[in-house]
Amino acid sequence: MHYEGHIIRPPSEANSILLQVTVGCSHNKCTFCGAYKGERFKIKDNPIIETDIEYASNYYKEQKRLFLCDGDALIIKQEKLLWILKQIKEKLPWINRVGIYANAKSLKRKSLEELIALKENGIGIIYMGVESGDDEILLQVNKKATSSDLIEQGLKVKTAGIKLSVTVLLGLGGVEKSLIHARKTGEVLSRMNPNYIGALTLMLVPGTPLYNEHKNGDFNLPDQKQMLLELYEMIRCTELHQGLFLANHASNYLPIRARLPRDKNQVLGVLKQAIDGNIKLKPEWLRAL
């Protein structure tokens, strides 16, 4: 397989075939993210993609899922994306789901009809970074999307019949806006009603603008207890019809897995115990991105 730069995939795609069709991220300007710094975004040429699919057809016959890397592969023009999916269907007929990252910008460029066509050709899940539901925070971190944009595009994914998995970032509002961030994010998640929510905890990456803000005293990162309070408030404000809320990423202090609304009161009780100091938290040295 021809891999370039940093290959990043969702935790749930750990056992999937990773087919890199783009390098880097088409936006790559979020102040908190250092994943693709120094990498110039590009879409891979068809012959390379075709060769990788051919390789996978010979050596990856056990995997039933495939993930299209990198940071925002949905930005690829519809004609080429459909060609990729048809190549996968033809050469890897045992694949039962293709996943892909997206952001509000790339989703805006796809009509509902185009998303439905992607669904019909194998796209089963779209992963979208929401990060925060507060417009001021989204502006500060240069997300280039408003809460309304995120809700609209997330709902479009679901209308197309594609499963929606979103990520939110605990601590992104700093100490000053911690609870506002939690409540506003809970409101956006409730309106979007995704199938899956993954809550990560902000870890400041050297070289990123947000890290520099922190070093200069312009951004105060919440401590362990404040992060737990933020997660508690976010879940309290999140009303899902039927969705899975996960906070079990390696960056989190306390692993949480809750089917909402069924497990809501139970998980809030666990978080309350942790906030009160009755549950041991993950030490800093074990946390990672």
For the structure shown, list the relevant keywords.
289 residues; TIM Barrel; alpha/beta; single chain; 10 strands; 8-stranded mixed beta sheet
Task: Give a verbal description of the structure.
The chain is α/β, with parallel strands linked by helices and 289 residues long. The chain contains ten helices and ten strands. The chain has one domain: TIM Barrel (Alpha-Beta Barrel). It has an eight-stranded mixed β-sheet with strand order 1-4-5-6-7-8-9-10. Helix 7 links the parallel strand 7 (163-170) and strand 8 (196-201). Helix 1 packs parallel to helix 2.
Q: What do we call the CATH topology?
A: TIM Barrel
CATH class value:
Alpha Beta
**How would you name the CATH homologous superfamily?**
Aldolase class I
Which CATH architecture would you pick? Alpha-Beta Barrel
Ranges where pLDDT stays below 50 over 5 or more residues in a row are none
Overall spatial form: globular
Number of helices: 10
Name the helicity range.
25-40%
Our estimate of the beta-strand percent is 15-25%
* Largest sheet properties: 8 strands, mixed
Oligomerization:
single chain
Q: Please, what is the average pLDDT?
A: 95
**Structural domain tally:** 1
Order of helices and strands: EEEHEHEHHEHHEHEHHEEH
Number of DSSP E strands: 10
Summary of the model, kept short:
The chain has 289 residues and is of the alpha/beta class.
